[in-house]
Amino acid sequence: MTRGVLVDLDGTLIDTAPDIAAAANATLADLGCPALEVERVRSFIGEGIAVLVRRSLGARMSASEAEAELAAALEHFERHYASVNGRFSSLYPGVAEALRSMRGLGLKVGCVTNKVLRFAEPLLAHFGLLQSLDALVAGDSTPAKKPDPAPLLEACRRLGIAPQECVLIGDSSHDAHAARAAGMPFVAVPYGYGGGEALRGVPSIEGLAQAAEFLAAGRSYSGLQ
Asked: Among this protein's residues, is 8 annotated catalytic?
């Protein structure tokens, strides 16, 4: 029986790539490097800020140069991202309504993201989603990020629900691996940043609205792998 729904943030609830690209390109400009296309930065999203910044630097300089500049670049990126967080992002269609519908069904709803809390919380608040969540587990809420199962297990602990009674909705193989390791059903959205070949064969939905309709019909994601 499905009693809870966990959702990824970047690429699942909100299209955050434009904000992240703006911060990454401002960081590159600080270091005297040319900008990257938004789609290129989009492909770097999903494993946290340090990985994204390292990949952005690696696209414009040698590996040794990127490593030497990483610490300063991280400071630049966090400053720039704090100033644009939510400015250019947009909700995916039906997200806000779907979260409200799930809670209206009596389900517990949580967000599990690799984005650190100081960026995730104000972003969700900016789009009015915080009030639709019963838990928020961010990239710095547990010692390990997805694809480690620790964030999902922490979300279940906060919700008071067993992992097999939840379903994770996400857009990447990191989400899929984390759910599998936690013993939790997983379904993928076809948009976002980490799909394609990595999610071939994984159960999918058109979006959160379809998940809400599925659950409203009394169906369960329990046992779906």
From this structure: yes
